[in-house]
Write a structure and sequence with these properties.
The complex is a heterotrimer of chains A (about 425), B (about 325) and C (about 270).
Chain A: H1 2-15, E1 24-29, H2 33-50, E2 53-58, H3 63-75, E3 83-87, H4 91-94, H5 102-109, H6 114-119, E4 121-122, E5 125-126, E6 129-135, E7 137-141, H7 142-147, H8 156-172, E8 179-182, H9 189-201, H10 219-231, H11 245-253, E9 257-262, H12 265-270, E10 281-284, E11 299-306, H13 313-323, H14 326-336, H15 349-354, H16 358-366, H17 373-376, H18 380-395, H19 401-416
Parallel strand pairs in A: 1-2, 1-3, 8-9
Antiparallel strand pairs in A: 3-11, 4-5, 6-11, 7-9, 7-10
Helix pairs in contact in A: 2-14, 9-10, 9-18, 18-19
Chain B: H1 3-16, H2 22-58, E1 81-83, E2 86-88, H3 94-126, H4 132-144, H5 147-157, H6 164-171, H7 185-213, H8 218-226, H9 230-258, H10 262-268, H11 277-287, H12 291-315
Antiparallel strand pairs in B: 1-2
Helix pairs in contact in B: 2-12, 3-7, 3-9, 4-7, 5-10, 7-9, 7-10, 9-12, 11-12
Chain C: H1 2-31, H2 51-58, H3 62-93, H4 99-108, H5 114-127, H6 134-159, H7 163-170, H8 175-186, H9 188-204, H10 207-211, H11 221-226, H12 238-273
Classes of the chains: A alpha/beta (about 425), B mainly alpha (about 325), C mainly alpha (about 270).
């Protein structure tokens, strides 16, 4: 009881400057299901501490629809939602509408994963706080690797070879629709993340570097795209050109593929009670692009930001700092398998007990590469759209990598004409 | 010359020969016409006037979704502008023209199929057979499922590996290997057409059915007595009579098809190969935050649709006011 | 020959029926399945598992969502028909200057992509103070249904024989009485059909419904379905979505079954009177 009073007093002190009386904060977090429950528990805890109330506003599951809704609200200057859950690539896009958190966050932001911290800042200002992290992973079938006596592939060339061997073997055994490797190849944001992994793993850069220079036209990038285009129709079904995460998981989880590129969410599902590959799956960092390449996963995840139009900005900021703080991130990791963004939590024993593969993820996250969202700001979606359309054209063999990248370079320069911001 | 047209022309002058003084009655009728039309006009002006005017205005500015109040008037630069000797703007954008072509192609193909199929379905539903009521409900189901859902449902059913469509065709021996319906540009647009036909044929069928139901029955009786072949009856008698309703149905179907968005968006995302005009406009407006450019695209869509509708009406010899020529 | 034609007719009916209903049937089957089942094909339901249906109502105010949809769609239909029939009478039966121009203007409202008017409509709705209310949605949806209703009803109104109206006018009836007493019964099939089509348009409308509402209690069905998510952002809760889709399609089927007699009966009844 005493502790409760103490924490109440503490919290009251924190928001005393904001408002003498309790306020209502509206936060957008995931609509339903487990993600909603976890979010609700978190905000309820904060509400109990501070005496404020929190209303959860459900927003669409689809990222594009969610962003469109946010933009509509923010463009109209509507203060109906105080705290927004935003994707890592939206900070730059929404920058003008977000409250500057630098004063409050300066001390904390250094403790977060560097790539995550980078996505939360625009022009040196902290506009959002990292909430949980995601990164691309390689899923493999341990049983099939054992059967064909192959190690977990370390380079893309290994993966190509192993996938081909397993695919041929399984097809001979009568599994006519077995494939080597599935991933996300639809013309959407997901393809940008996937293709960025190929290119960055060969040290071919990240489309636009942190200084804002367009780097995408280079021989390594062309080589990476050529390799990937070679998969389509051989170890990868042509249908992958319209796959998103769930379509790829479908093929893999039905036991029809040896490898898959996907986010960490697929792990729990592939190991679920009704999964046909339960107990046969492993995860690893994505392969390197050759001996001098590096293991790269593209960074995903979500941040929390405060609307500039919030009428209770101080309380909203306090809520954001609470939800992204050490204690709450740990709770979310243990209870909901949300990967923390605070580096020190990767050594936490409780989290390790709940998620045995957190150690491997720590490596993946520390090597994760961020999409060039902060540097391109408002123009990120244009850059990404040009990029994934180029990659899609190469994958569907309607363009040669070199020419396609050359055209992409020209198009990106046109977008950049007056600078990125 | 259709029968209804003849009837219309014959009766139109008669209307003005009504005894009791042409001018006063006509004037009172015209006055009541305006009173009857006024509520609709007021409501439409209220809800559509501002958004539409605003869209057209923004198309001449450099507004961005990021700062809607802070923009400059830039004339026609969104449409066509010359920067350092290089022509830029929507009218020079190959992606835009590609999306225009996609949309027009999609509209032409899908509306044609839907018109023919819708007429057939309507004729079936107009015949009397046991279970007709249930059939009417069954036919309407595709239109009743929210597009948000049905588009995703088809996406799933068309999956190349575990989709039911490929499975069915494989079992029936119609195809040798799974088809990648939505992935390859060659089949993607046809797939979109197929789903659109599935979804909107009921709309056509129901409107045509209503037209069929409003026909006087004695014409058929006469034809039956004369022993005229049913197909001949359809083309000589029924079709001319339902033509006005058919034209309106086609116009509204075409209007919807020309603005097609969610179907294409869900089935093939932002792929350049299958992008429609509305998907393009949405990408500019929302994804790229280019309110100016997106509004220009929307205004162009409006102009293109208006042009096509006027051409279609001229070709179909219909005037909005209904006088046949 | 006659038997052959009969068989052909039934084959056609069966073919069209199958094409129409198969995806819905597949949705029903999928709604009984969950988890890994999603990734395999089934033609017959393996079991009658209603847990997805329970989940739809448990995790959100789905009953309220359905009610909202019904209120919005019914109001939109009532308003569209009321406005549409009066306007259609004027457009279809009276010659006045500017008629063609007005009809084209009304049609022009349907020529802008929905996403283009979204932003302006959003400001309008907020300006009226109707944000996150059902009247706001009703108003917005009128923009989608009204042009269509006016045009279709005008066309049908025009097709009716002239004598009907003249007789009434000779008797000294006012235009309003003519519309109500003479045209309304005659227009029944057309009115029911357009009403039904307008109802479905409003029932299925997604973009306005998503943008102009904020809280779960105010949402209509399509955004409510779009909000359904699995345990993570990427996972698609397919079984639940299918269950929800089946639930929302049933009222429409019921509506058609109730009103389909009206679509047929209209003129035969009206013609006798006329």
């Amino acid at each position: 009881m005493a502790r409760l009073i103490a924490s109440l007093a503490l919290a009251a002190g924190l928001i005393a400057s904001a408002s003498a009386s309790a306020v209502e904060i509206a936060i957008s977090c995931s609509a339903l299901g487990k993600e909603y429950e976890i979010c609700k528990q978190g905000v309820d805890a904060w509400a109990a501490r501070t005496g404020n109330t929190v209303k959860i506003v459900s927003t669409p599951n689809s990222a594009t629809e969610r962003l469109a809704l946010y933009q509509q609200l923010l463009a109209a200057g509507a203060g109906d939602i105080d705290v927004f859950q935003i994707d890592v690539v939206w900070t730059g896009i929404l920058a003008d509408h977000l409250h500057d958190l630098t004063a409050k966050a300066r001390g904390d932001i250094g403790g977060h994963l560097p790539a995550m911290a980078e996505t939360s800042q625009v022009n040196g200002k902290v506009l959002a706080m990292p909430w949980f992290a995601d990164a691309g992973l390689l899923y493999y079938r341990q049983d099939l690797l054992d059967k064909y006596k192959r190690p977990v592939p370390q380079t893309w060339a290994d993966l190509t070879e192993t996938a081909r061997i397993i695919q041929e073997g399984e097809r001979k055994d009568g599994k006519g629709d077995f494939w080597g490797y599935v991933w996300q190849g639809r013309a959407y944001e997901g393809l940008t993340t996937v293709a960025l992994e190929w290119i960055a793993s060969t040290n071919g850069g990240t489309i636009v570097d942190e200084k804002g220079e367009i780097t995408v036209e280079n021989p390594k990038a062309a080589e990476a795209l050529k390799t990937a285009a070679g998969w389509v129709g051989t170890i990868t079904p042509e249908g992958v050109l319209n796959y998103t995460e769930e379509e790829a998981r479908g093929v893999f989880q039905a036991g029809n593929s040896a490898f898959m590129r996907n986010w960490p969410y697929a792990w729990a599902l592939a190991q679920g009670a009704d999964s046909s590959i339960k107990g046969k799956v492993g995860i690893a960092p994505l392969p390197k692009g050759g001996p001098d390449g590096r293991h790269v996963g593209t960074l995903g995840g979500q941040l929390l930001a405060v609307s500039k139009y919030s009428k209770n900005a101080d309380a909203a900021i306090d809520l954001v700092m609470y939800l992204t703080g050490q204690e709450e991130q740990k709770r979310r990791a243990v209870q909901g398998s949300f990967n923390p963004t605070i580096v020190s939590l990767y050594g936490d024993a409780d989290i390790a007990r709940a998620n045995p593969f957190i150690g491997e993820l720590a490596d993946v996250f520390s090597n994760a590469v961020a999409r060039p969202a902060s540097v391109t700001g408002q123009n990120y979606n244009k850059v990404s759209t040009e990029f994934f359309n180029t990659v899609h054209a190469v994958l569907s063999k309607r363009a040669q990598p070199e020419q396609a990248l050359n055209r992409l370079d020209r198009d990106l320069k046109r977008i950049k004409r007056n600078g990125w911001q | 010359m259709s029968m209804s047209g003849a009837a219309l022309q014959a009766s139109a002058p008669a209307q003005e020969r009504v005894p009791g003084g042409r001018s006063s009655l006509t004037r009172s009728r015209v006055r009541s016409a305006w009173i009857f039309v006024a509520p609709t006009l007021v409501v439409l002006a209220l809800i559509a006037g501002w958004p539409l005017a605003r869209t057209i205005w923004f198309s001449f500015t450099d507004a961005s979704l990021n700062s809607l109040d802070d923009y400059q008037f830039i004339g026609f630069e969104n449409y066509l502008a010359n920067y350092d000797g290089e022509w830029l703007g929507l009218l020079t954008d190959p992606d835009w023209w590609h999306s225009v072509w996609n949309t027009v192609w999609f509209t032409g193909v899908s509306v044609s199929i839907e018109t023919v199929l819708g007429t057939i379905v309507a004729l079936i539903l107009n015949a009397s057979f046991p279970g007709r009521g249930l059939m009417r409900a069954v036919i309407l189901i595709p239109w009743a499922i929210p597009t948000v859902v049905s588009a995703r449902m088809w996406n799933w059913m068309l999956h190349d590996q575990f989709g039911v469509i490929n499975d069915m065709l494989l079992r029936l021996g119609l195809i040798a290997a799974p088809i990648t319906w939505t992935a390859s540009p060659d089949t993607a647009l046809w797939t979109v057409v197929m789903v659109d036909v599935w979804k909107t044929t009921p709309f056509m069928a129901l409107l045509i059915l209503a037209a069929l139901q409003m026909l006087p029955g004695d014409i058929y009786e006469a034809a039956k007595v004369d022993g005229v072949h049913p197909v001949k009856v359809f083309f000589r008698v029924t079709l001319p009579l339902i033509r006005p309703a058919l034209v309106v149905a086609v116009i509204f179907r075409a209007l919807d098809a020309l603005r097609v968005f969610d179907l294409i968006y869900v089935l093939t995302a932002n792929s350049r190969d299958t992008m429609s005009m509305s998907v393009f406009a949405r990408q500019q407006l929302v994804d790229f935050q280019e309110v100016g450019l997106g509004s220009a695209a929307s205004t162009l869509i409006f102009l293109i649709i208006a042009l096509l509708i006027v051409i279609a009406m001229a070709a179909g010899r219909v005037r909005p006011s209904g006088e046949a020529r | 020959m006659k038997i052959l034609a009969r068989i052909g007719f039934w084959l056609l009916v069966a073919g069209i029926g199958l094409f129409s209903i198969f995806p819905f049937y597949y949705a029903v089957i999928s709604s009984f399945r969950s988890g890994n089942d999603l990734f395999s094909v089934a033609y017959l339901p393996e079991r009658l598992d209603l847990s997805n249906y329970v989940a739809v109502f448990e995790r959100q105010p789905f009953g309220t969502n359905i009610l909202n949809s019904i209120v919005v769609a019914a109001s939109v239909v009532a308003l569209s028909l009321a406005l549409g029939i009066t306007a259609a009478y004027a457009f279809g039966r009276i010659r006045f200057r500017g008629r063609s121009l007005l009809l084209m203007t009304i049609l022009a409202v349907s020529m802008f992509p929905q996403v283009a008017v979204l932003s302006g409509m959003f400001e309008l709705i907020r300006g009226f103070g109707l944000y996150n209310t059902l009247p706001g949605l009703i108003l917005a949806n009128l923009m989608l249904t009204l042009p269509f209703t006016v045009w279709v009803l005008t066309t049908f109104m025009r097709e009716l024989p002239k004598e009907i109206e003249e007789a009434a006018f000779v008797d000294g009836a006012t235009p309003w009485i003519v519309v109500r007493r003479v045209f309304l019964p005659l227009m029944m099939p057309a009115a029911v059909t357009t009403g039904l089509l307008a109802f479905i348009v409003s029932w299925n409308e997604f973009l306005f419904a998503l943008t102009f509402t904020l809280t779960n209690e105010r949402r209509t069905v399509p955004p409510a379905i779009a909000l359904m998510s699995g345990s993570t952002a990427y996972e698609l809760p397919w079984g639940t979505i299918m269950a929800a889709s089946v639930i929302v399609t049933l009222p429409i089927i019921a509506l058609v079954l109730v009103f389909q007699r009206k679509i047929v009966a209209g003129l035969t009844a009206g013609a006798v009177k006329g």
